[in-house]
Automatic annotation (TrEMBL):
Coiled coil regions in record: none
Pfam families: FAD_binding_3
The keyword Oxidoreductase is assigned to this record: yes
FAD-binding domain segment(s): 8-322
InterPro entries reported for this sequence: FAD-bd, FAD/NAD-bd_sf, PheA/TfdB_FAD_monoxygenase
GO MF annotation terms: FAD binding; oxidoreductase activity
Keywords noted in UniProt: Oxidoreductase
Lineage: Bacteria, Bacillati, Actinomycetota, Actinomycetes, Micrococcales
The protein, known as: 2-polyprenyl-6-methoxyphenol hydroxylase-like FAD-dependent oxidoreductase
Domain of life according to the entry: Bacteria
Length: 441
């Protein structure tokens, strides 16, 4: 493929949404290029939870067995310790089907896995260290992107341009309206802690008078988080690291020793929590998905999975149109008569169908996103709110969680692990485009 070729799709962003979309479209027989601005996927403090809905997708695509051979941690329940009492909030093992488990895996492992599998498909290309500078717009339609990378600046033209490059996307401004922000009163501090030799069972969160501490198991260490009041990081730093380590130990006493490894504030990363949504995700020839369209809070850990569902819905809707458009454009390009042949008129009509499909994707995916974002905002304001007096959470939280019933645990597992509108690949996407990929023919 050369810069002069018109791709079927160019995707800005090599995160979960971009990689899944690129894989699915290439699997359908389309030519797609995914652009990733970093040189590798080794970036920390990213969403590491692979939920049952995403495992089911990987299973449907014939990928789950190979994925689960990676060094992942399988969790069947989500436990929390509230004021010293352990409670089970969600029971994924009670979900139906073979994917009744939550998988914790460093996101770079998932992305490397998808890149390897997509790389077997003849239509897929991944360009690392390549930054998207701006969209190319002609007569009101997005027709590609200008990029800079190891080979300098160039233009990649495509029938469809997708922004899957997160909440800092350079492309989503082409939709014409800024995202609508939902007020979130908290931020999250992320850091690593070594796991103590006498570590307790897997525990997602510890809640106590001094706050909420997250502990995500990564084998010999925790990816840990601490909820703070939005804008409160400067005051926390001013109080000093000893005070911060003390806060962690008061909420989760077994972290007192591991917390001593925090010797410099450079080890603590601030995540400014945002919940927002673009009023319109698309315009002719373009759509934003994942965090580029709707930034999710870390609450419930659903951001990666909702981004993946966006990608599946988009591939289901657009792959048939893009295939017909590709065929029509190829035939029109072969016509040298100078007239406007039927195939060229067909290509113009199919471009209109593509734009209608983009609008349909937003209508479909916006409903579950809105519902989840409302619950995230409510959760931040009612439960994970910053400390008031000597209490982080309302006093009713502990007693309520202690009497959570098995039925409610199953409902929470479904809400978190499956979501409101899980997507499944269409038969077109289940067809292998390359026998060497080892997938369903």
């Amino acid at each position: 493929m050369t810069d002069e070729d018109t791709l079927d799709c160019v995707v800005a962003g090599g995160g979960p949404a971009g990689m899944v979309l690129g894989y699915l479209l290439a699997r359908a027989g389309l030519r797609v290029t995914v652009l990733e601005k970093h040189a590798d996927f080794l970036r920390d403090f990213r969403g590491d939870t692979i939920h049952p809905s995403t495992l089911t997708l990987l299973r449907e695509l014939g990928l789950v067995e190979d994925f689960l051979r990676l060094p992942v941690n399988r969790v069947t329940t989500l436990d929390a310790v509230v004021d010293g009492t352990r409670v089970t909030v969600a029971d994924f093992g009670a979900l139906p089907g073979p994917d009744a488990v939550l998988v914790l895996a460093p996101q770079w492992d998932l992305l490397d896995f998808l890149a390897r599998r997509a790389g077997r498909l003849p239509g897929f290309r991944l360009l690392m260290s390549t930054t998207v500078e701006r969209a190319v717009v002609e007569r009101g339609r997005v027709v590609g992107v200008e990029v800079s990378g190891p080979d300098g600046e160039r233009t990649l033209r495509a029938a469809l341009t997708v922004a899957a490059d997160g909440r800092g996307s350079r492309l989503r401004e082409v939709t014409g309206a800024p995202p609508v922000e939902s007020g979130v009163p908290v931020d999250v501090l992320w850091f690593h802690l070594p796991k103590p030799p006498d570590a307790p069972p897997d525990t997602l969160a510890y809640v106590g008078g001094d706050g909420l501490v997250l502990t995500i198991d990564r084998g010999d260490r925790y990816q840990a988080g601490h909820i703070i009041a939005k804008g409160g990081f400067d005051a926390l730093r001013a109080a000093g690291l000893p005070a911060f380590r003390g806060r962690l130990a008061r909420v989760a006493p077994h972290l007192e020793g591991p917390a001593r490894t925090l010797t410099d504030w450079s080890q603590v990363k601030l995540l400014s929590v945002q919940v927002n949504r673009l009023p319109q995700w698309h315009r002719p020839g373009f759509i934003a998905i994942g965090d580029a369209a709707h930034a999710m809070s870390p609450m419930f850990g659903v951001g990666v999975n909702y981004a993946v569902q966006d990608a599946v819905a988009l591939a289901n809707a657009l792959a048939p149109v893009l295939l017909r458009l590709k065929e029509a454009r190829n035939r029109a390009a072969d016509d040298r008569s100078g007239a406007t042949p039927p195939d060229r008129r067909l290509a113009e009509r199919l471009a209109g169908e593509l734009d209608s499909a983009l609008a349909a994707v937003q209508r479909r995916r916006e409903r579950p996103v809105r519902r989840m974002q409302r619950l995230q905002v409510l959760g931040h304001r009612r439960i994970a709110r910053p400390p008031r007096g000597d209490r982080f959470a309302p006093r009713w939280v502990g007693p309520v969680l202690r009497v959570v019933t098995p039925r409610l645990r199953r409902r929470v597992a479904h809400f978190v692990g499956v979501g409101f509108l899980p997507e499944h690949p269409s038969p077109l996407l289940l067809r292998s485009a390359h026998p060497a990929d080892g997938e369903i023919e």
